[in-house]
Design brief:
The complex is a heterodimer of chains A (107) and B (198). By secondary structure, chain A is an all-alpha fold. Chain A has 4 helices and no strands. Classes of the chains: A mainly alpha (107), B mainly alpha (198).
């Protein structure tokens, strides 16, 4: 078995892919939100912030994985509430914004 | 080390999330179906009560029983789905926990704590630094005290000379005379008060 340390460039490329995936995942959330303009507005803002995140190394990747997990939880919350504004969905949205701010602070 | 990953190692959080969402949607559609069936049952019950024809009553009764059986089936499915969703949520939490403990143990500061000898050495060094700093202060304090103890008061500035002594004696005498005068002056004042009273 051969162990090979990934180069920084490869890690940055992985992070770039992750950022892109997160941004696209928000598109699916917009559809789940149906006609709820409040949530759709928040999601569009989120998508903009996610699109322009600077790819980075390990720290950035960990933050982006955390954001990805939160997006998954938001997907479940919106499915459960059938697009309606729920406390859980609002909480998760706030957590995602916090995670993005935290990521920008660390880099 | 077994080279092949188990199904659980290959499982991603996204797959779990998608599975939960799929089941939630199914549950919602069953719920709306149940509401619909209940409305139909209530409608047929009303019709059956109002109906006078026996054959029609029998028809409504059979229809209601059939809808109730379907409703029962849907309820069973909904319960199964709820239980399934519960377990998938537990699986999602387990995946998160696994990731959390992996990340936390990989944090560089966390690795430092694993080095017990290094930690003990560092803590001892910190303690010695603290003791040395405290010793500096206590030594400085003792130096202050020693210097102050060696100091002798200058009698010419702070002490009493002959002229000061004479004045002090005069002040003390004056105080004594005044206090005696006060004592004697109090006594005659009391007599006129008693005479006036009678």
């Amino acid at each position: 078995m051969c162990f090979k340390k990934k180069k920084v460039a490869v890690k940055v490329q992985e992070d770039r892919t992750l950022i892109e995936a997160n941004s696209k995942a928000v598109e699916a959330l917009v559809i789940l939100a149906k006609d709820n303009q409040e949530i759709i507005g928040d999601l569009r803002d989120l998508q903009e912030k996610l699109k322009y995140l600077i790819p980075g190394d390990t720290i950035a990747t960990d933050c982006d994985k955390k954001i990805k997990n939160k997006i998954g939880d938001l997907k479940i919350a919106l499915t459960k509430s059938d697009g309606e504004t729920s406390k859980k969905a609002a909480e998760i949205l706030t957590e995602i914004k916090l995670a993005i701010a935290d990521r920008n602070a660390k880099l | 080390m077994w080279p092949f990953k188990s199904k659980y190692d290959k499982l991603t959080r996204e797959e779990t999330v998608d599975a939960i969402c799929k089941l939630e949607k199914e549950l919602q559609s069953i719920e709306s179906g149940l509401e619909e069936k209940q409305k139909q049952i209530d409608g047929f019950m009303l019709k059956g009560r109002k109906e006078s024809d026996r054959q029609m009553k029998l028809f409504y009764a059979k229809r209601i029983n059939s809808l109730k059986a379907e409703r029962e089936q849907s309820v069973q499915r909904a319960m199964y789905l709820m239980y399934n969703i519960q377990l998938l949520n537990k699986l999602k939490t387990a995946i998160d926990d696994n990731q959390f403990f992996k990340n936390t143990s990989n944090v560089s500061l966390g690795n430092l704590l694993a080095d017990q000898k290094g930690l003990a050495k560092f803590l001892n060094k910190t303690l010695n630094t603290r003791v040395q700093a405290e010793d500096v202060l206590t030594s400085a304090d003792e130096t202050f005290k020693d210097i102050e103890a060696a100091y002798e008061k200058n009698e010419a500035i702070y002490g009493k000379n002959n002229a000061d002594d004479a004045l002090l004696a005069m002040f003390e005498t004056q105080e004594m005379v005044e206090s005696e005068q006060e004592m004697f002056s109090e006594t005659p004042l009391m007599k006129p008060d008693t005479d006036e009273g009678e």
